Amino acid sequence: MTAAAAPTTTVLVAGIGNIFRRDDGFGPEVARRLTPPTESVRVVDYGIRGMHLAYDLLEPWDALVLVDAIPDRGAPGQVEVMTIDTGSTGGVVGQLAGLDGHGMDPMSVIAGVKTLGGTLPLTYVVGCQAHSIDDGIGLSAPVAAAVEPAVEAVRDLLDRLTHGPRG
Q1: Alpha carbons 17 and 46: distance in angstroms, whole number
Q2: H helices of the chain, where?
Q3: The domain containing residue 131 runs over which residues?
Q4: In angstroms, rounded to a whole number, what is the distance separating the alpha carbons of residues 126 and 29?
Q5: Which residues are CB-neighbours of 123 under 8 A, at least 6 positions away?
Q6: What NCBIfam families does the database record attribute to this sequence (predicted)?
Q7: What is the CATH number of the domain that holds 143?
């Protein structure tokens, strides 16, 4: 008799941002550098295709990791890992007609999933304080320096999510 296999934790890692708006390209750059550690993890550069992400979130996922540039949360290049309360959209409009499929921030994606009838899994944001989101290609120096620490933060999070706490 063989032991039952442990359940697989499915995780979607979503790089979000516009590579033509300087540091807003942080999420796609982190996603580009990540290799899924297991078949149960999918890493996607969604760029500015927020509705694509919202539709993908209608699939059953155990966890979601959003990687994005964040404003006004500290010094440029500061990386932060946050847990999102998916039960509250903080007043974001939940009307599908009001959603912009090419420019959705994470809270709008959350509202979009709910509007489409889905439920969000356990959700994290690995965010980096942006220095500039002006038009232009390429990350600012502090944000470019934060890419590798963010990649490591995502890897650590994936390790905890797929293997459980170490102790």
Answers
A1: 8
A2: 26-33, 50-56, 106-115, 141-163
A3: 11-163
A4: 13
A5: 63, 64, 65, 66, 83, 84, 86, 110
A6: hydrog_prot (TIGR00072)
A7: 3.40.50.1450
Would you call 28 helix, strand, or coil by DSSP?
Answer: helix
Residue with tokens 């232009």: 136
Q: Residue 147 has what pLDDT?
A: 99
Query: Based on the structure, what is the number of domains in the chain?
Result: 1
CA distance 32 to 134: 22
The segments of the chain whose pLDDT lies below 50 read: 1-7, 90-102
Q: Position of tokens 């999420």?
A: 27
| DSSP state letters, 113-149 | HHHTT----EEEEEEEE-S--SSBSS--HHHHHHHHH
